[in-house]
Amino acid sequence: MNKFKENISNSVLYIREVFLLSLGLYSLIALLFVLSSSQLLFIALLFLFFDIILLNIIGGKRKKEIAKIKSTIKNIRENKLNSPDEISLGKSLVELEEDIKAMFLRTQNDIANLKKLEQMRTEFLGNVSHELRTPIFAIQGFIETLLDGAINDPKVNMNFLTKAGNHTIRLNNLLNDLIDISMIESGQMKMSFRYFNVKEYLETIYNEIYTLAEKKQLELILHPISKDLKLFGDKERLRQVFVNLISNSIKYTEKGKIEILVEEEIKSGKIIIKDTGIGIPDSDKGRIFERFYRVDKGRSAAAGGTGLGLAIVKHIVEAHGSNVEVKSEIGIGSEFSFRLKK
Ligand SMILES: Nc1ncnc2c1ncn2[C@@H]1O[C@H](COP(=O)(O)OP(=O)(O)OP(=O)(O)O)[C@@H](O)[C@H]1O
Ligand SMILES: [Mg+2]
Question: What's the rounded Cα separation, in Å, for the pair 274 and 252?
Fold first, then answer.
């Protein structure tokens, strides 16, 4: 029934033509009773003539409509329209007009997204080259100085070689981070989820990273974790998350402590990494997960940071169906947390 109504409402466009046609038919039937055969032939020919005129009118109307649709599509294709309000096909084609408007909006969004992606790619390349340049220039500088004679100066030669060596480590770390980022973002990162014992797992990481805190005379505390608690995740990838978060806390804390806690919830374990460090300004909290974003570029670069750590952390935690939450107060400390399924 609805379909019938719809068809009728769509054909209203040709209502005059239909009425004209029926009027003709009525008259023909009426005349059948009163006219002779030669008169009827004449009338039939007359109607044929009117039919042709009628068809011509209908055809003209359709042509106009199609021309309107064509020119609208052409304008869209040639980017001549700025807003969907400029699209108008008239009363008879309201539905089509709505569809074309929706399509136009979508194309506009797609174009805007493409432009944004293009800009991000350019920015990314700029950032990468900038980050590569620093260690390469440093290594180049040390090698040139050594070749120019410093190699024979026992007071500096070892020092320069060690520094050059450190920069190659930085380069290597940067490249590894870049490979991770590109694998993650192109969806090539294979995850392998399993249940694992969190206490054992975090103790291993704690033992590996402990000396880093010790060097800065910071206390690294792993709070007691139930020995039976098992969480679900990709241990290898989560290692990156923990190492990044804990080393950030160590990097951005001058005095005090770094704590690792696991709070058991009904369906998950909440993992918290907390420090008494410099804190993150409110205005930067939303941006620290962006690639290459650093609050204090000077301080981070001095600590060997490139601003890729948290971008990787975010992706990995999201691949576990969770989000990283940040609480932080300047001069008091920061807290990063996320959940893993039990
Ligand atoms: N625990 C923290 N306390 C204070 N600031 C932090 C902390 N963690 C991260 N930040 C800020 O967020 C920025 C981004 O962190 P991210 O780990 O992505 O980069 P990075 O540590 O500078 O370099 P990378 O991790 O690539 O070596 C840091 O530069 C720092 O300004
Ligand atoms: Mg980091």
Answer: 11
